[in-house]
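Hi there, hope your week has been kind to you so far. It would help a lot if you went through both lines with me. No rush at all, and the record is pasted right below:

***
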Amino acid sequence: MRKIEEIYWLRAYGCIAVFLFHLLDHVNQRLDNVATDLMRIPLVLGTPIFLFIAVFVFALRYDKSVPEGFLAQRVKYVMVPYFVYGFIYSTAEWVKLQASDEPVGFVANAIEYYVYAGWHGYFLIIAMQFYVAYWLFTRWQLWRLNPVPWLWGSCIISMGYWGLAYWFDVDLPGYLLWIAPLGWIYVFFLALVLVRYYPLAPESVLLARPAWMQQMARPLWLTLMVALIIAATFAGWLAFSSKEVWVVPFFVLFTLCAMRYLAGRPAPLWVRHVNAYSFGIYLAHPMFFVLTDLAVEPLSLPIGVYALLLMVVGVVGSVGLNKLANTTTLGAMLFGKQLKVSH
């Protein structure tokens, strides 16, 4: 059994994509144009990548059954950081609002963050739903079904969900619209399909995969998709987030291509380091962006210097906090467990 090198690459890409997407949110307050829109195109894949990896790794590791305590472990290391960081971000927002013209109550603000998942940790709620779904998948022995038709159906469902939600201007509290599983179900089935045809042994060949998978994994189709997205960007037709209709086919093509061409390519040391701290970086980086903003607000920094400062403080602060937290078992559980990555 060989190492799954492509997952190292994808996790690093997803971490960097989410980090830079949020960094651009701050940059856009000073500069917002077509160039920054184009920069967001590869970054919208960050959240789907994390969700894909969550399902793919467990499906490959556990196959047709999960161990006892599977869900309890996920709650311990996923939902506990959700509440810890949710408290930090919600309290900071509450303090900020007390000094504004629209103060809110502490409990009402906490409900917005915890119950309505109104912060970037909404991803953890989606991931937890996927863990429960995979537990049910094995418990009901749904691995006996062919996941390919379910993939195509789920792509239609997810595209329809995002399309109808925006068409009818659905407005739910917090990020409730985003955490509904219908918008992400295509990622779940894409992971199951790729696990089914994953070449586990070095002697495995791509011919074992269906013709449609080999065809869609060609860079040509991904290139054409990107060209179409760029054209639509210049036309002003697109909104940029991971919760858009066009992201569904984009992510499917990207993942099929990446899983094919990254297979067996050893991840360098820097990629493995990003993997090790990816969870901590994901959770903590907006906090350090805000602290940077508070520090540089009185200054008039050039946009390039400002972006570089955000990047340095965001990375150093997030990694430093994660390393400090992981010096104890309790700290790892509260602030995000550091991944064990072989070198």
Notes: The chain has 15 helices and no strands. The longest helix spans residues 70-98. The two ends are 16 Å apart (CA to CA).
